[in-house]
Design brief:
Layout: H1 15-19, E1 32-47, E2 53-71, E3 76-90, E4 93-94, E5 101-103, E6 106-110, E7 114-124, E8 129-138, E9 159-172, E10 175-188, E11 195-206, E12 211-222, E13 243-254, E14 259-272, E15 274-275, E16 279-288
Antiparallel strand pairs: 1-2, 1-15, 1-16, 2-3, 3-6, 3-7, 4-5, 7-8, 8-9, 9-10, 10-11, 11-12, 12-13, 13-14, 14-16
Length: about 290
């Protein structure tokens, strides 16, 4: 989601952000973009609170989610991200010499944290698009389940993410391109630290406008103003004081004028209290222009 739990901005940092392609261009009234996708992260090492990498028992997260962006008016969109199935798991640990079971595997299945929001088009010309977004992160997932309370499909807090977006269309030869930048502030409750977020995305359209190739980077910086202890989360994406710089790529192919498929790869190149392995996602989308 747009809070650190979607990290991944990156991961899920990443799921919502990777779903929000073309979000700087507000949809016309009655038009929309809808996506059904699966997202997967498995990691055996994480960035510590000092930015170093440490190993951990293999853990993972998986979700199946819906993303929708619908134009209520020509200037106002409603946005929804719904991870209606979310799974967090830990692999079993066996002795390398005897094969005996040391720690059993464990998993939790539930709904994840839902994001609902609005985006308002402030300016939209042939040369630039400027918009503002307000997204609410709802604590609909589980934040403390399992044998040790560390199995989570949400962080248990209600957050409000406000951001400004700028999009620039241009071309490279005959290939349409765009770039977009956002900057925002995420207010988090329940003694979680607030966050500063920014990101850059560049896309190029190829194969007679059937294929979009997109590269993106996202940065999340914790303001370190919360009191929730997150030092033992070993990269849990729902932890407090997460920080990262991520790089990712996405390919979206239009099978018809409206229907298409997409795949995404995102990884943190540096961070604190976040997993140190890449995430993967793929899905189908409907783009009603």
């Amino acid at each position: 989601m747009i809070s650190s739990k979607k990290a991944l901005v990156c991961f899920l940092i990443f799921s919502l952000s990777s779903s929000m392609m073309f979000s700087q261009w507000v949809k016309p009234k009655g038009k929309g973009y809808y996506k059904l996708s699966a997202w997967y992260l498995e990691y055996d090492q994480h960035y510590t609170d000092t930015g170093e990498k440490d190993p951990n028992v293999t853990r993972g997260n998986f979700n199946i989610n819906f993303y929708g962006d619908y134009g209520i008016t020509d200037k106002l969109d409603v946005i929804a991200y719904i991870p209606f199935f979310s799974r967090t798991f830990q692999n079993e640990v066996r002795s390398g010499t005897t094969g005996d079971l040391i720690t059993p595997g464990e998993a939790l299945n539930s709904i994840g944290d839902i994001d609902l929001g609005l985006e308002y088009g402030i300016l939209n010309t042939e040369k630039v698009a400027f918009s503002g977004s307000l997204i609410f992160g709802l604590p609909t997932g589980n934040n403390a389940r399992g044998s040790d309370g560390s199995y989570q499909t949400g962080d248990g807090e209600f957050n409000q993410f406000i951001k400004l977006n700028v999009g620039l269309p241009f071309s490279l030869g005959n290939a349409p391109m765009y770039s977009k930048v956002y900057v925002g502030f995420n207010n988090r409750t329940k003694d979680f630290s607030d966050e500063f977020r920014t990101g850059l995305e560049v896309g190029i359209n190829l194969l007679n406008q059937k294929l979009w190739l997109i590269s993106k980077t996202d940065v999340l910086k914790s303001l370190q103003n919360g009191s929730v202890n997150a030092q033992n989360n070993q990269g849990n994406i729902f932890a407090n004081n997460i920080e990262f710089v991520s790089l990712g790529g996405e390919a979206a192919y239009y099978i018809t004028e409206k229907w298409g498929v997409s795949i995404n790869y995102t990884s943190a190149v540096s961070g604190r209290i976040i997993s140190a392995r890449p995430s993967y996602s793929g899905g189908i989308f409907l783009d009603i222009k």
